[in-house]
């Protein structure tokens, strides 16, 4: 091929090596131009999706007997040119079939019925039945006296395969014709899908005829094949599993014979045409392949899950005894259209949708046409859910076809007309890409080519009739169109469910869907709202009027409601959103932030639908909303600030105040802000339990220290004493939860010539003012100062001097007080006095020789009494986070007993932290690593659960909910998937605490493996 020839072919887009030589051999090219009479052939070849592939196939075809006639017809038949070159360049599998059976080229010749082939189920069924030697005029195979094939075994499979491929070739060439010749008609993708379903029906009927001939069941056996999925909806792909259910009569001894026939149908069709999948039958793979009609009905009435009724939306008889098939559909239809009344409807449907997304490999999610976000399944899921909700009262919605049902939803006002049309257009576009991808090798696939595979993307674009737009080549246009349609599907998926709800509560334009109030309530109930009427009231309040805020709310709510429906408690979430919106009505950036920052809206709805604590704090700390935004790297640095930095910032802010009252107000406000930040990060899974405890402890310490500083700064005259605040309990251990009190001891020491009495009296006044300021009623979360662990408890003085503490512990201190001091840690006040107090108590809490056996016995006795007397009446000991088996008290007392016995000899054990104490005990060989793991897991689980209870209920609590939405919300706050079984969380909790308790019994109580 000379340079001029190459240049001329390149103008046609034909650039493959040796193309000119091949064309010359075919008699279509001479020198640098087409042979006269072949110009249109060259242009048709140039339009092929893959000119090189098409030319290689033509070269092979030219070596077959019919080539001379094909060549002659190509010069005059535009239809043949368009179909042949488009098919050979789009599908290697169909090209191979044509070359193996070249006499079938006439299937591509131009005739009126091939320019726009009409649906012709009866013709296709007759053709495939004849291929296996069955009489098309006999009763359908599977019915009494039905026709049977004369071909069986491998001979029947081969004959059926060839006949099926012939039909597929004819249909695909008509589908692709407009690619090769733009003047030829374009087949709509839904028409192609319907005819593919017809072809599948015909193939199943022929397979049934073969199976009946091979198995020879009794004449009285009737077998019906019910099409499901895309076959049932007459929207089949070129390469799909054909989902079926088998039903037989009269049952009894004939059930086994029917099962053999059904099994053989699946094998014959699988070897000849496509896989037949019967896993949608009752009990799935574990269930019987064939059941009687009564058997099916009984199962669906008693045991079927919601997703099974969703699948039955598309049930349609496709082969076998037609009367039995109709009886089956008539029997299950009433149950299908009442599935939305089931209590588990929303949970089941949402769980199925999540499973679809979760099962996509992460490296394929951005290329998944079918299952990914904004893909085909989103459209189908949305349409089916709306059908189930509104089809109970509207028979017009009972179509098994996605596009027909979508049109009916638009006509009925359940979906806006523009939205319905746009969603249908996107669905057709995605299905077209799916069809082209599957045609290439007749393999089942839904994956777009990778972004860097430009050759594959170019082929797909040309096969899908995509053209460059002047600014971009076909690859750019394809990628842009795919992304545009995917985004549109995602957006409309949200609007389909929620936008029409607003028609019940506000004025919308005429082209919007108009739901009645009752229809809106039905949809809300189906989507998870326990009080639809209350939800509509909130929507009225949010969208009423003509203000800009109401307009933005109408835009936002479809998205927000979609997010809320996936939260544990949509009712509480919507109420909370209304209250937050009303409280922040005058905040100019609030709605704008939700509108412009998708991550903020998504996170806020999850928080409001999970936690009662968050909305209580949010109305007074709205600035935290800005922290919900993600950074350019996808993280949330503002939500995960360093606790040390927070404490310094709080004390700096408070120090600027001029009065103790303003200082405490600033400190409490800062703490409110930080509690909200921590709660948000906790629910969103951005902080682990140790980080949460550290952050809560740090901010509470800072508040106490800042308040003490402010009160001392306001004192007039010379100070008669130094003061120190000692954190105790969970505060001292650095393990505060959201609802914890601040357990403290107050210590003083006289200055100058002051007496102990003067010092204690002055210090008591300071302390009381600190407690009064922090305890003043306020909308902010309370930080209760609890000094009940002081010597003599509530009967003792609030403040003691250092010497008084020394004398008390020396003369009257009991072992439980030494145990309490294990968590003593200075948190505020005079640094020197803090050190002196620590030096005083260290020999008491870390005795050099440990504690006596009698003291160990006493601690065990006290623990047993606490367990028996303090557990609330009716509490479940297996799920009480504080006093329950294996819970917080069990683990903490175990660590503290080890410290009392061994910290005198093992300095590393001298820590106020429970988890650090566990780790050091293992390092010292006092307990095994396995024991540390079990105790640590029990403590973390109980602490996380206790925090989650406060987050969900908005008030402290130690008892896990037994069931219901609160339990689901607690599980969700702990990271368990919403919609899953919260019993999984309960099982995990009980398992962790049970194992923890086993270690406690052995280490704390000293029980052997075989003792009580």
TrEMBL record:
Coiled-coil regions, chain positions: none
Region span, Adenylyl removase: 1-501
EC number: 2.7.7.89, 2.7.7.42
Enzyme class name: transferase
Entry cofactors: Mg(2+)
GO CC annotation: cytosol
Keywords: ATP-binding, Ligase, Magnesium, Multifunctional enzyme, Nucleotide-binding, Nucleotidyltransferase, Transferase
Lineage top rank: taxon: Bacteria
Catalytic reactions on record: [glutamine synthetase]-O(4)-(5'-adenylyl)-L-tyrosine + phosphate = [glutamine synthetase]-L-tyrosine + ADP; [glutamine synthetase]-L-tyrosine + ATP = [glutamine synthetase]-O(4)-(5'-adenylyl)-L-tyrosine + diphosphate
Pfam families named in the record: GlnD_UR_UTase (PF08335), GlnE (PF03710)
Any one GO MF annotation of this record: magnesium ion binding
Domain named Glutamate-ammonia ligase adenylyltransferase repeated: residues: 154-325, 602-838
Family per similarity comment: Belongs to the GlnE family.
PANTHER family in alphabetical order: BIFUNCTIONAL GLUTAMINE SYNTHETASE ADENYLYLTRANSFERASE_ADENYLYL-REMOVING ENZYME (PTHR30621:SF0), GLUTAMINE SYNTHETASE ADENYLYLTRANSFERASE (PTHR30621)
NCBIfam families according to UniProt: PRK14109.1
Function according to Swiss-Prot or TrEMBL: Involved in the regulation of glutamine synthetase GlnA, a key enzyme in the process to assimilate ammonia. When cellular nitrogen levels are high, the C-terminal adenylyl transferase (AT) inactivates GlnA by covalent transfer of an adenylyl group from ATP to specific tyrosine residue of GlnA, thus reducing its activity. Conversely, when nitrogen levels are low, the N-terminal adenylyl removase (AR) activates GlnA by removing the adenylyl group by phosphorolysis, increasing its activity.
Protein name per UniProt: Bifunctional glutamine synthetase adenylyltransferase/adenylyl-removing enzyme
Source organism of this protein record: Pseudonocardia sediminis
Designated gene of the protein: glnE
